[in-house]
Amino acid sequence: MGAHSHDNIDWDAHLDRLRAADDFIAPDITQVIGRLLRPGDRSVIEIGAGAGGTAAIIAKTLASRGDGGRLTVVDTAEQLLNAAGERATGAAGGVEIRTVRADAADDTLAEEIEKAGATPQADLVYAAFVVHHLPDQLAGLRRLARLVKPGGRLAVVEFGLQTRVLPADIGLGEPGLEARLLNASEQWFQQMRAEMDGSVRLPMGWAKAMTEAGLTEATSFSYLIDRPAPLDDLGRAAAIRQLGMLRRDADERLPAADVEILDQLLDPGSEHYAGNRDDLHYLSANTVHIGTKPA
Ligand SMILES: C[S@@+](CC[C@H](N)C(=O)[O-])C[C@H]1O[C@@H](n2cnc3c(N)ncnc32)[C@H](O)[C@@H]1O
């Protein structure tokens, strides 16, 4: 059996959702990558690339600088990996793109990258929303730090503030529905982490964890995904996807009345379908944590 994730999630089944999300946030991620890639950076390893939207932006940014460049994409999910490889290859000429099916929770990560014919060190190692899917996140950071060239940087993107798409009072049920949904989602997240085999807590902030992982100059910045109401079709679809994510085991965690309303918001046949509302917005803040490998 090949590499697999540890979180009980079939990531390949999320291809369409991840692809749509990539398209929605492409302008924001283009800015993040522009800010992260330093002028001399020629090589990048991306861990847990999803459908490859960011990989394509990295490849394009490297290509725009001329002089080649190298991008290695690592993931446990085979279909996602293929999709990411294709998307990155299609986005940029002259940049060497490699895909490696490997597990970021396995200490053989660097060897697996090397075995696949790619260089196991890069100027920038980028991992967005994947370290929290590893049983031992600090061990994960240490493993990723080993993939960074001396003088290079590890960038880990994690949640900043929870995504908001609904008005505080949607006119159905009790006000504050979204806050209750987000609370349930946080419980789901903690359970997902607790149920991983070998799950270890990370009782510290990310910048401190970067330092613990042997990196220096730990710093962070956050970026907003800020799409005010009224949303266009892309934004509305993103808001519906977000509500769909909040439906995930809502039955077990929320009052039946809230679940019923959420189902109406998600049902295109319902008079209360959220896709027909002109007061949805999309506001999210994510944080990029950066550490430097001592030269
Ligand atoms: C939440 S998605 C994030 C995708 C993308 N980075 C983004 O920001 O949209 C998590 C990604 O990490 C991958 N993944 C999960 N566990 C992994 C592991 N142990 N090693 C490598 N990749 C993993 C999944 O297959 C998926 O591509």
From TrEMBL:
Keywords: Methyltransferase, Transferase
Keyword Methyltransferase carried by entry: yes
InterPro entries per record: Methyltransf_12, SAM-dependent_MTases_sf
The UniProt record lists the keyword Methyltransferase: yes
Biological process per Gene Ontology, one example term: methylation
Gene Ontology molecular function: any one: methyltransferase activity
Every Methyltransferase type domain range: 45-154
Protein name as annotated: Methyltransferase domain-containing protein
